[in-house]
Specification:
- This protein is α+β, with helices and mostly antiparallel strands.
- It folds into two domains: 8-219 and 337-427, Zn peptidases (Aminopeptidase); 221-332, Alpha-Beta Plaits (2-Layer Sandwich), CATH 3.30.70.360.
- Helix content is 33%, strand content 26%.
- The chain contains nine helices and 18 strands.
- The chain has helices at residues 29-54, 63-75, 142-158, 181-186, 245-263, 302-322, 342-356, 372-378, 410-427; strands spanning 79-84, 88-94, 97-107, 126-129, 132-135, 164-172, 197-207, 211-213, 216-219, 221-230, 234-235, 271-280, 286-287, 290-299, 326-332, 338-340, 360-362, 381-389.
- It has an eight-stranded mixed sheet. The protein has a four-stranded antiparallel sheet with strand order 12-14-10-15, covered by helices on one side.
- A hairpin with a 3-residue loop joins strand 1 and strand 2 (88-94).
- The two termini are 38 Å apart.
- Bound molecules: zinc ion (2 copies).
- The site of one zinc ion has 7 residues, from loops.
Length: 434
Amino acid sequence: MSATGRGPMAALAVILLCAAPVAAQSTNPLHGTIDELTAAINDQVVDWRRDIHANPELGMQEFRTAGIVAEHLESLGIDVQTGVGGTGVVGVLKGGLPGPVVALRADMDGLPVTELADVPFASRVTTQWQGREVGVMHACGHDNHVAILMGVAAILSEMRDDLPGTVKFLFQPAEEGPGGAEPMIADGAMENPKVDAVFGLHVFPSPVGMISYREGGMLASSDGLRIVVRGIQTHGAMPWGGVDPIVTSAQIINGLQTVVSRQVDLTDSPAIVTIGQIEGGNRGNIIPDTVLMIGTIRTLNPDTRTLVHERVRRMAESIAAANGAEADVTISLGYPVTVNDPALTRQMVPSLQRIVGDGAVSQPPATGAEDFSYFAQEAPGLFIGLGVGADDPTLVHPNHSPYFYADERALPIGVRALASLAVDYLTGRPISED
Ligand SMILES: [Zn+2]
Ligand SMILES: [Zn+2]
């Protein structure tokens, strides 16, 4: 998830009732192949993950990681395009039979965090970031995403003769910012061949054996809010001689609370409007001429997003006008809502249940943001959460923590999940109806 939106998903401590497979039996012979090949390649996936973890790179600097990915895909005989949307890598695997096109996405970037996790492959990498020397760490677990998708590529390339359709591998840069999905799409990553469905996963510190999903809005949109309230400066003892932007700002902040509580249908979709920074004035006896307020807007439904933007603007501008002041409202668009296509989600849930049984759980939305959302605007998408939380609670930390720890028992679950989503989508039969 992006740095602008680490979320309560991290705090998701849902109790796993059972991680054993449900009664549904697979009759798809390719499932057996996926499972066998996953077991055979698991040591390699772990090695990739540790190597990438020890050598993290910040967004748009993923040269080493992208090089490893590209070399691996080429070794499998997959068509590879590098430098897509910056440092992105696209692989195209054509199956031996005609069929649709499915894309699988992994993000490759680390974060400016100094690792404190006690693992032998902990990152010791430092780099310059915003003029400072900082540690770099895969504190959001994207190392797992890359290793898992490399494993999936190996498995599906072994199975290519039996695949009805094409699998596209999207290794994207800079999910944590400034965003790699949008430039990859601009470079044609979702075209030639055109993608019919896209899947992605993200690791979270929920228990190993848990896969989370949600129909519809799963992760929030994350938009920046900036309001400049302009009044007229005057003496603090003679407020009638000017227009007070401080009092106006106070009214605006209170008014903004009612955008969500009074104007959004909260039974349909939640929203958040937060002012996190306010600046104005420099001493007690001067009413200043401007006040700056900076905040964030999160929504979980594209329509709600549009509505909240309109209402925030109207509220701030109207309150300012009522006070004889002016409010300049700037909303800078961040990542859109990550929307899981409802029909695709329902179609694919059995694939997840085959792997983790009751561990596949529908969960509430989270207020973090993800630029997988852009891929899911181009084709029906499904984004899932993969539990990597260790059994030892002292090892469980939220994404972006310097102590973030991924239990590697989750890696083969992730490999089987993504490989199965791809194969089941292509074959159109997740699981037996019997
Ligand atoms: Zn993140
Ligand atoms: Zn992330």
